[in-house]
Design the sequence.
């Protein structure tokens, strides 16, 4: 291997690492920590997927089956936004599949959108038992 090839391989490795998704938390979070740190936690069935050209985002139209947080939110169809690249922590959901996801409400003008990313996925939805009582205000959680 020539030194030029070695340098190119090293640069490619560094660039790939720097472009990889990095969650803003110091360590892997448990489902309970994700629940406590998120504005919303919902169980959804994906109805439609749309890539918004030039925006860097994918929007999913979902049917919300359960709101785990906040507790008194309406059921029905909503839009959930995520980055369209895994290097920016975007998620991929398949139409007709059911997911338990968490995320944040983002304000854009007078509107709020639901935003999620791969740092906010409930890893074990079958064993997930949401309860606001597990979150303490002193732990950095929102509830």
Sequence:
């Amino acid at each position: 291997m020539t030194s030029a090839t070695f340098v190119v391989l090293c640069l490619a490795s560094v660039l790939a690492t720097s472009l990889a998704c990095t969650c803003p938390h110091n360590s892997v979070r448990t489902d309970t920590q994700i629940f406590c740190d998120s504005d919303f936690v919902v169980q959804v069935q994906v109805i439609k997927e749309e890539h918004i050209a030039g925006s860097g985002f994918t929007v999913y139209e979902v049917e919300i089956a359960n709101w785990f947080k906040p507790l008194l939110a309406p059921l029905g169809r909503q839009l959930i936004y995520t980055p369209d690249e895994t290097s920016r922590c975007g998620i991929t959901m398949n139409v007709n599949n059911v997911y338990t996801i968490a995320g944040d409400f983002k304000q854009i003008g007078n509107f709020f959108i639901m935003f999620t990313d791969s740092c906010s996925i409930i890893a074990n939805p079958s064993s997930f038992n949401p309860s606001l009582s597990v979150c303490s205000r002193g732990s950095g959680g929102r509830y």
Summary: The longest strand covers residues 40-52. Residues 23-127 form a domain with the OB fold (Dihydrolipoamide Acetyltransferase, E2P) fold (CATH 2.40.50.120). The beta strands are 40-52, 57-69, 76-83, 98-108, 111-115. The chain has two helices and five strands.
